[in-house]
Write a structure and sequence with these properties.
Helix content: 40-55%
Radius of gyration: 20 Å
CATH architecture of the largest domain: 3-Layer(aba) Sandwich
CATH topology of the largest domain: Rossmann fold
Mean pLDDT: 92
Shape: globular
CATH superfamily of the largest domain: Glycogen Phosphorylase B
Low-confidence stretches: none
Order of helices and strands: EHEHEHEHEHEHEEHHEHHEHEHEEHH
Distance between the termini: 7 Å
CATH class of the largest domain: Alpha Beta
Number of strands: 13
Length: 359
Amino acid sequence: MNKIYFVIGTKAQFIKCKPVINYIADKCNVVILLTNQHKDFLDKFMIEIDPNIKIINFLQNNSSLDTIFKNIKWFVSSIFKIITNKTFKPEVNSLIINHGDTLSALLGVVFALKHKVKKLHLEAGLRSGKFFKPFPEEIIRKLVSLNSDYLVADGSESLQNLNNYFKTKNLYTTTINTAYDNLDIADINTFRTTNEIIILMHRSENIFSKKNLKKFVEYLIQLQKYHSDSKFIWIMHPSTESQLLKYNLNVKVQDTIEIYGLMEHKKFISLLKNSLLFITDSLSAEFESFVLRKKTVVWRNSFVNRYKLDSFLYITKKSSFDSSILETSSLINADIDEKFSVVNKPSFEFYEIIKKIGY
């Protein structure tokens, strides 16, 4: 049986690939290649992977990549290790699976090209329509797709994007994003609503810009004044925490908001399920909130209005500060009843794709 290598480096890649990997663990010859881009998270939570799957520390990283410079240095060093054969050699006729738009996905493509093995791009169809927004994610996703043999979208809209750009490639799709299989929505109507407002913010466009991060912190502080009876919880990525310290914004945050570190995904979903409001810039977490039908503020300049729901509010750099506060408050107080229809398991659908292409 030919080997299937999943290249995993970030929290989002782990969360979205985990249900697929665990589903096909006893059906395919699966190996995980860790780039350790988000080493702190992966060290804690790889125990959630089927214990029978072999895990290889494909690339090394001994520090938290919490600045742009550290990310660039690690990426360049990793490229050098790959092209000089200082990693391992994959088996002939194997398949390298790269997920999404991260530096780890790009490294996975370079590795596969170096060793002349087949490449599959999972979650390949997301497009913003703008070459540099978001940066560098949009460029990375296009490069990974361009250099892959098989492209797997996560829905009809994403598949149409692939048809627009890559008609000659082998195109497939699952009904919905693979992260869906992490969510137990059977009891979706029994969630209790707490007074908790959950915050998750980590995209480069927000945290590495002093202006954008300061505006976001001021937004939270002002919102807290309007809703002082609510508990504000910020789930903090190391890079976000580092930038708050760099820009001397941490004191303002600590006075009004409770800070949580990165946590087990199940615990995060539990918080999200029962939250009053979710504020994020994350595409992955936005999807989870969409499935759970939670009131959500998306603070991002790209992929605006992906989910056309009354329970979703999109704030961009063009949004007025005062109107953002008022619209968020209105959303918190709104009586919204939106249902999600259960769909097929994407992990099963992905397994069928793997069989179809001969793995």
